[in-house]
Amino acid sequence: MSVLSQHFNFIYPWRSYQERFLTGFDTHLEDDHLHVVAPPGSGKTVLGLEMVNRLDQKTLILSPTLTIRNQWNERMLECFVKDPNAISVSFDIKNPSTLTFSTYQSLHSFFRNDMESTSEKIIEFFTEQGVSVLVMDEAHHLKNEWWKPLFSLKKLPNCTLISLTATPPYDSETSEIKKYFDLCGPIDMEIGVPELVKEGNLCPHQDYIYFSQPDQEQIRYIIAYREQLNSFANDLKANEAFISFIKEHPFYAQTESVLEAIYNNPAFYSSLLIFLNAVGLEIPKEKTEFLGIEGDKVTFPSLTYEWMETLLQYFLIENRDIYSENENLEPLLISIERQLKKIGALDHKRINLTGENKLYRSLSQSPTKLKSIVEITKLESGALEDDLRMVVLSDYIRKEFLDFNHRSDLSEINKLGVIPIFQYLRRTIAVDPSFKLKKEKLGVLTGSLIVIHNSLVDDLSRRISSEAFNQEILWDSEYVLIKPTNTGKKEMVSAITYLFETGAIQVLVGTKSLLGEGWDAPAVNTLILASFVGSFVMSNQMRGRAIRVNPKKPNKVANIWHIACVDPTSAHGGVDVAILMRRFDAFCGISLEDKPYIENGADRLGLRTQVENVNVLNTKMTTLAVQRNTTAKRWKDAIEKGTMLVRELKLDYKETKTFKQQKKIYYLDAVKYAFMELGAILMITLPELLLKNLGALLSRGLLYFFYAMVSAIAMLFLPKTVKAILLYLKFGRKDKALIKIARAIQKAMQAKGMIDTTDKKITVVTEKFDDGSISIYLTGASAKEGLQFVDFLQQIIAPVENPRYLIAQSGWLRKKLKFVNYYSVPEVFGERKNEAELFFKHWTNHSKNSELVYTRRLEGRKLLLKARFHSYQKDDNNLTSKKALLWK
Q1: Looking at residue 112, what DSSP letter applies?
Q2: pLDDT at 328
Q3: Sequence spans of domains, the chain
Q4: Do 741 and 797 form a contact (C-beta atoms < 8 A)?
Q5: DSSP label at residue 825
Q6: Is the model's pLDDT at 542 over the cut of 90?
Q7: What angle do CA 495, 501, 503 make, to 5 degrees?
Q8: How far apart (Å, rounded) are the C-alpha atoms in residues 302 and 283?
Q9: Residue 528 belongs to what H/E stretch?
Q10: What share of the chain is helix, strand, coil (3-state, %, to 5)?
Q11: Which of 382, 585, 586, 743 is buried most deeply by CB count within 10 Å?
Q12: pTM for the full model?
């Protein structure tokens, strides 16, 4: 019997990508999860309502805020139900109806207070109410305390769970990402930005980065901090008491008797050996044999800060209670703790010797970013003039800078925030006649503070009653502080937004909490993200403010500016740059130069120049940013070349090697290069030698000359040839090996029923690029199948961690030379023996001379430890991989 009325029907035509998802609805539903990823403006809500319609069961719909909760009901009435009374609706989670709209906070409160935080009670309650469909909107918002009731609701009889999100929390801890996908299930469809631009639901846009350098005070701070870290590391390596303590630890002193404990904590054992090797101690052969490493000569990895962290974390955090009872040892550990605290490397029960958090706090809030914001605003106002609609988003208001006056020096503004940005812009407009932005066009909008030019007060009064707000002159300026009354708060945001949309205000500085999500102003064509707090989920939400289409400006092109402060003491720009680059993985956009293509990540910006050269990079960005028509054309050209987003795995080698080295090592076919050189010698040098030694050839005979030439060539090229052959035997051809692995995954997925082969021609595609990188992806597969394929491939080639099953690959000759490659069996195939054997069967069809090892037995643990240490040693095989999303 239907619980939804026959009047519940979508009254508009579906967009193409929505239609594609709904066509495969039954297939997506097979695992009782429906998981859709789509950016703001893609119609997730109506798609979610259609899923509810097709399931036709009593449903609980959860949202992160009351505003979004109410939008669900509004969309239902606008797009599905003509008669509001046709469907029984509830907003009270304690009294569910056919459709119940609520929030995560309400569910958590109900679970904690009414259900006494008991899973059995909440399951029983909703089972009695007949609820069997759970919708989680904006699923990336989930907080720690919300997980338990949601996992409990998954256990409802015949439960179907629908998850909708703009950005999965990929930048969270590994455990959090796993928890998210355990709850929501694998992604069934990812609606991409290119499709929305193609359909006209989002405007063409481009991301730019404006780099700054820290001031001298910050540079001195960074250098001093790095010197402190280096001094601590050197002191620890010279600490005889600590070295003696390490040598007496059972893992080293009684290795054979504690093997099971070592195999359960291989990272610590490795860090122990690496530390002792670094301080000059000769590690006995038997210690490394327990790692499965044979031979007299072992190459240990360098003692990095990360290895020191692993070592100290074990003693000072994980097992601190045990060692605190030792009267002789306690003073030593206390001394080390004090040193760590003194330099800020011990915080919240975590040792951090890389200084990432401390340096990030310094660089991310650098006052030099204020100058970057001014330069960007000056550029954009000069290019767009009256058409400029810019929003600058920051984390904090910093009200303490409100009393900044015209006699004060700008250097006194030493923090990043809404008011510092406003004051910097205000002062620069006043003193720089070349600045196109007029002073009255600058405003501030936050939840607790509003600033506008005094000439706009009358305009504001026409939008909202003058009795709904109070005003106060901002000291020493032409601006006023607007203070809405309790009754005027709801209307104030829309009134200021109207002034912005109409151009009375052209640059609006605000907080991400108010304007970053949910705020709708289609006129925004320029966005500066001056925010450094929060995940890239929030960053993507903030970008969504700028890339919406503007019906009044159909040719709108948006610029999104990111700002970063470069650490001059770091070869790669430092932590502020690194975090920004990681967050770009959440953004899918058009390439900046050369051939247009659409991809996520920062690679599309082509930052080949060293980031220390900020002037060169900023000139490049500002030159391209004013060419908005070019951006629109690049989107059009790139979209026409593809039809859908493809998830692929990109593989490359670390940037520490030159391209020539990358290429030789990447293909690991040094034999080819050796014989190419040999061929060149024979073709060029041999004729020359024949001419020069024609007399000797005639007098002593051809045979003598031939033997002499072969001997000379052998002496010259034998060392290179031997080295080339050894490299080939050790690594093989990586590009060919990866193709074999990919095909094995494809066949195993098909055998397990994870790929629907009906009317499909699934193909593994590999692409090689001039920079030495390679990409692998599936064609003919669904989005879900493609995502899983990439996940499994990455799990296999990643450094071995702790899989249940392991594959050791080595032929007869390679085994004699002690060359073995190790691969993790993907987690989904490693849960049961029969499925691991299924995967291994398809592996051996493509890659011979392999062995499947169960790592939960003693011998398997030993091999697992060897595999992990083997990955630490592969300095000559610096393969890195990352998932990429491309329009193809």
Answers
A1: I
A2: 79
A3: 16-191, 205-215+366-642, 218-362, 669-731, 734-887
A4: yes
A5: P
A6: no
A7: 105
A8: 14
A9: strand 526-530
A10: 50, 15, 30
A11: 586
A12: 0.82
